[in-house]
Amino acid sequence: MGFKEAFTRQGDGENLLFDDDAFIYFAISILTLVILPLVYSVIKPLFTTYVLGENKRKFARVPKSCNDQQNLKLAKQELRLKWLTTGYVFKIIILVALLLMLNASIQSLPNAEKIKGFDPYEILEIDPSATEQEIRKAYRKISLKLHPDKNPDDPQANQKFILLTKAYECLTDEDKKSLCMKYGNPDGQQSLSVGIAMPSFLLKKENRAAFLAVIFLLLLVVVPIIVLYELRSIGKYDQNGIMLSNQEKFERGLEENLLIKKGVELSSCSDELCRLRLKTEQQAIDLEKLVNELKEEAELRKIQKFEITEALEQSKKQKKKKRVTISIAMILIYAHLFGKPIPESVKQLYRSTIKIIPKLVNSMVRLAFEFSMKYKVIQWRQRGRFQTKFMGARCINNILQFSQCIVQGMYETDNPINQIDFFATKAKDYIKKGKMPVFQELVQKQVDQRILPNWVPEEFKEEIMNEINMFPQLDIKQEVTVDDESIVEQCNEDIFSIKITLTRLNTPEGEDIPFAHSNRFTYVKEEGWHILITFQNEVFYYSFLNGSNRVQTTEFKFQPKMYFGDVVEFEFILFVISDCYRGLDAEIPIKFKAKKASQISRAVEYHKEDQELDKSLPFIQSMLFPMQNKVEDSDSEDEDQSKKDDE
C-alpha cells in the first residue's frame, strides 16, 4: 500500500497497515546488507590469490629441492581444488539466489508517481492554469469513470473516487486549498500513521495457512538445525584444528619415556586417522604387500615388539581366517618412516595422513604442557586401580622427536645426516672405510668452514652444499632482566623477565625465511620451534614460534618467590626444539641469583613530582578551603567593624 492508499484510508478500524511499497524497500535494504559481505567472502580468495598474489609470494619461500618443488605442485593443485568445495559452491548458489531476489525487488519498485505527494492537478489530469469551469468539467468526466458503482470489481475504486473528490474540493474550496498548500493535503495537519513493512497479501485468508507453515518451518526446523550444527562445531576442535575427543586418548598414551612407536600408535588411533577406509580392492592388495615389506624391514632394523608383526602373528593364531585388521594409518606412517615406496592406489591416503601428523603432535605437546603445569601428575582409573604418571620436559621432547622423524621421513635410529639426499640415497655407493659427517656441525658452521669427507665425489659437493644452506643456521640469545632498571640488587620478589630471541643467520635481512626443507614430507610446511624452559625437570614455560620472520622472540615474566618460594639460586634449562629437523635442537642453561627481600634494604625514593603532589591538597579539600578562608575573612571584618563602633 502506497501513499495514496494510506492517504485515502477512512477510519476503517485498522490500527496498522501492511505497506507493499515499504516492504519492497525494506527487502532491498536487507538483501543488500546480506549480499555485500557474501560477495566479499566469495571474491576475497580470488582477489588475494590472482591479483595480490599472496599465495604466489608464500610459495616463493619453498626450497628448490626436487621433493619440495613436487610438494609445491601438489599444494597448488590442492589450492585450486579448494574453490570446488561444497561450502564454496553452496555459498555461490546462495549468492546467485539472493541476486535474483534483489533484481526482482528492484523490478517491482513502485513508480515515481506512487510515491509523489498529493497533486490535485495531476489527479484531475488538468494544467495548473485551468479555469474553474475546466476543473468542474474534468471532475465530472473522471468521476463517471471512477465511480464505485461502475467499477464493482475494482477493490480500490472507492479509494480512487475519494481521492478524486478531495482533489476537486482542494481546487474549488479556498479553505481547503490553503490547507493543501500549507500541509500538502486538503484535510490539514495529519497525525502520524504507522505501517508494517510487510506485503498486503498476508491479510488474505487463503494465504494465512501457507504463511504460518513457512514461519513454523523456519522457527521450529531450519533455525534449530542451524543452531545445533554451529553448537556441534563450537568446542569440537582445538586451536590446531584437531578434534578435542582425542584428548583422553592422548592423556593415557603420553608418558615421560615416550618411544617413537608410541607416537605412531597415538597418531593412528586419533579420530582423524582411525576413520580411514579403503575404497577399492587394489588398495587392499597393495596395503597387504606393504605390510609384508614393513615386517621384513622391522626384522632388519631389529625392532622389538613391532605392532604390525604382532598383529600378523595374532591373526595367524586365530582358527578362522580373517583379513588382517591393522590400522591403515599405522601402515602408511611406518612405510613413511622406513622410506618405503608408496603404491599409487593409496598415495592420496598417504599424503593426507602424513600431512595432519604435525598438527596432532602440536596438540599432544600443548596437552602435555597444560597437564604438567596444572596437575604435575595425571591420574585415571583403569581396571579398578588408579594409575598415575608424570609429564615433564622429556615427554614433550620425545613427542617432538617423533614430529621430526615424520617431517624428514626417517626412523629414530637413522643418522640425522640422512636428511641430506646424497647421504640418504647415494653415500652407500661411495663410502667404504670413511665416516659420515656430523649433521649439526655441517649446518651450524659458516659456508667457508664447511668441509665434506674426502670420499664424497666432487660432482656432488656443490649440490650437497646448496642443500645444506636450506637448513636453518640458528642463533639463540637469552636475556634475564628485571622490570625496574634502576634496581641494583635483585631480590626474589622482583618481576623477572626471560627473553628468548631466535635469528636465522642464513636468511638475508628483509627476506622471509623459507618453508621447511624435506626430501620425504608430503606437503609444504613452515619451520617451527618449540621453546621450553624447565626448572628441576618440570616445565616452567612453553611457547611455539613459527612464521616467516627472520628474527622471532618470546618473553616470559614471573616473580621467583611466587613460583619457587625462598629459592635464591636459579638454574633453568632452555630447550629450543625444532618440529621438522633432526639434530638441530639446543639445550642452554640459564643461571642467575636473587636475594631474599629480607636480605637487602632499599631506600624508598620519591619522584619530585610525587613529592609536590603530596604537599598539595586533595581536590575536595582544595574546593572546601577557599570557602573556609572566605568565611574567616568575613568574620575578621565583622570584628574590626564592631571594634570601631565601640570606639
Automatic annotation (TrEMBL):
It is found in: Membrane. Keywords: Membrane, Protein transport, Transmembrane, Transmembrane helix, Transport. GO terms for cellular component: Sec62/Sec63 complex. CDD domains: DnaJ (cd06257). This is J domain-containing protein. It is a multi-pass membrane protein. Pfam families: DnaJ, Sec63. One of its GO terms (molecular function) is RNA binding. The chain crosses the membrane at residues 22-43, 83-102, 209-229. GO terms for biological process: post-translational protein targeting to endoplasmic reticulum membrane; SRP-dependent cotranslational protein targeting to membrane. Residues 119-184 form the J domain. Residues 626-647 are annotated as: Disordered.
